[in-house]
Amino acid sequence: MKISYFATIFTAAIVTLGLATSCGNSDSNTATPNAAATASASPTAVNKKNTNPTAVKTDKVLPNVFYSEGGVAIRGTDPVAYFTQNKPVKGNPEFTHKWGNTTWQFASAQNRDLFAKNPEKYAPQYGGFCAWAVSQGYTASTDPDAWKIDHGKLYLNYNSAVQWGWQKDVSGNVAKGDKNWPALAKDKDKK
Predict the structure, then answer these.
(1) pTM: predicted TM-score of the whole model, two decimal places
(2) Rounded to the nearest 5 degrees, what angle is found at the Cα of 37, between the Cα atoms of 36 and 39?
(3) Which of 163, 137, 141 is nearest to 150 (CA)?
(4) To 5 degrees, how large is the angle CA 115–CA 131–CA 19?
(5) Which residues pair with 72 in a beta bridge?
(6) How many helices (H) does the chain have, and how many strands (E)?
(7) Cα–Cα distances in Å, from 111 out to 46, 99, 128, 173?
């Protein structure tokens, strides 16, 4: 009985430590669009049409700030596939769309066209930065395999261990992330 108790405590400590340290602050590889070109198309803008009950209500349009590596969002993963195939699917450089000063890759022309018609529907929340990190007030890179769709929105996390912790209170973490993201997005937009 005591061994099980100590194993549980030890596991909790390892996970907590992993959540606190593995979601490192990542200030590089951020793509920011010019405000005039994308003022009306922000995946993170929360307005009166937003159906997410935990969203922060604001009339201000947030800048489109996206985490990218080499100018490519989600490490080349097709954002539409998360919704249509319920899994991450590697995009093909043949099928791309430029949005938010970031290149998005898709597995097919059909997915590219779906995204182009409504990028806010498919783009990850918080500019594709780690949802856990944003809920804690900072930004970090993401792993395309650490994902979740909640209330029709795509959330990415740093890795599967961080995602596991984030999923323990999705609605609470989304509420904190929605509250923190406007200031973080503005800060990223300045860089």
Answers:
(1) 0.71
(2) 65
(3) 163
(4) 145
(5) 69, 103
(6) 8, 7
(7) 24, 14, 18, 29
For residue 73 the two structure tokens come to 């969002």
Single-letter code of the amino acid located at 43: P
Spatial separation of the C-alpha atoms in residues 92 and 172, rounded to whole Å: 35
Bridge partners of residue 97, in order along the sequence: 104
Return all residues near 37 (Cβ < 8 A) that are at least 6 apart.
Answer: none
pLDDT in tens, 128-174: 999 999 999 999 999 999 999 999 999 999 999 999 999 999 999 99
Q: Is 71:103 a contact under the CB 8 Å cutoff?
A: yes
User: How far is 14 from 158, CA to CA, in rounded Å?
Assistant: 16
Taken as a whole, the chain contains a residue count of 191
What tens digit of pLDDT does each residue of 31-63 get?
Answer: 433 333 333 333 333 333 333 333 333 334 556
145 burial type by CB count under 10 A (0-12 exposed, 13-18 middle, 19+ buried): middle
Q: CB under 8 Å, gap of 24 or more: what pairs does 83-88 form?
A: 83/121, 83/122, 83/149, 83/154, 84/111, 84/114, 88/144, 88/145, 88/147
